[in-house]
Amino acid sequence: MFYSVLQRCQAEAPRHRFRFKNKLLTLDSTVLDVCASMFDWARFRRSKGAAKLHLQLDHDGCLPVFAHVTEAAVADVTIAQQLILPPGSIVAIDRGYIDYRLFEVWSEQKVGFVTRLEHNADYAEVEARMSATEGPIRRDGLIVFQPITAGRTITGTYRRIEVWLEEKQEVLVLLTNLLHLSAKTIAAIYKQRWQIELFFKALKQNLRIKTFVGTSANAVQIQIWSALISILLVNYLQFKSRCAWALSHLVAL
């Protein structure tokens, strides 16, 4: 039912606002706290229970195109390793998805990614494209990782970009395999990752999946998928409406 409704929504969804024609995606997860004594299948720690919703967001209309519910202990990167992303697509991810072997596979499959570089990453810069002391982009260069990184042999050339965040007064260091786009576009792609955080917020607040009707794993699955179908229906109304409806207003209506 979810994917049937999704197909209808995608036919009406507006395209993302970037000039490039590549599909833009975001991968992330959110933790749903539950009572460990009642949701015994979702025991996270000794006295805490939690489920985790893994989600892939398509920025054409900001629609969820993949969802998977697991116990909270399942690592984000474990789900990402099982996904098959369309060639030519670009995915924005946070550091929870850092897996250098996965980056190698994506590069071979012509899948672009933008993420934050780990503080302890072992690399060497092989080409400095630009360096500045002012402006949002402070440094742009090509790097290679040392022969053994995280216990694996890593080949290929990647791109390291330093972005100055004026509001936080700090430097954000990005890692990507996209060599043809401008540094400003790469920074804007990573900033778009915030859309999935807004989606999770809307899902929890407007569709109320913080409180569950049933305690079994199947009951939680049904409630989460029902909420995702509902938010697709509301998105469809947004796309078809001549008025600029806010999602929260449509839900209330």
Question: Can you give keywords for this protein?
Answer:
two-stranded antiparallel ribbon, 10-stranded mixed β-sheet, globular, 253 residues, alpha+beta
Please tell me about this protein's structure.
The protein has 253 residues and is α+β, with helices and mostly antiparallel strands. It contains 7 helices and 12 strands. Strand 9 and strand 10 form a beta hairpin.
Short synopsis of the structure:
By secondary structure, the protein is an alpha+beta fold.
Helix-strand blueprint:
Elements: H1 2-12, E1 24-34, E2 43-45, E3 48-58, E4 63-71, H2 76-80, E5 90-92, H3 100-108, E6 112-116, E7 123-131, E8 137-145, E9 148-149, E10 152-153, E11 158-165, E12 170-176, H4 183-191, H5 194-206, H6 217-240, H7 247-252
Parallel strand pairs: 1-5, 5-6
Antiparallel strand pairs: 1-3, 2-3, 3-4, 6-12, 7-8, 8-11, 9-10, 11-12
Helix pairs in contact: 1-6
List how many beta strands DSSP finds: 12
**Average pLDDT rating:** 88
What's the alpha carbon Rg, rounded to whole Å?
20 Å
Beta-strand residue fraction: 25-35%
Low-confidence residue ranges: none
SS-derived structural category: alpha+beta
Q: Helix proportion of residues, in percent?
A: 25-40%
Number of helices: 7
Largest sheet: 10 strands, mixed
Distance between the termini: 23 Å
- Structural shape: globular
Order of helices and strands: HEEEEHEHEEEEEEEHHHH
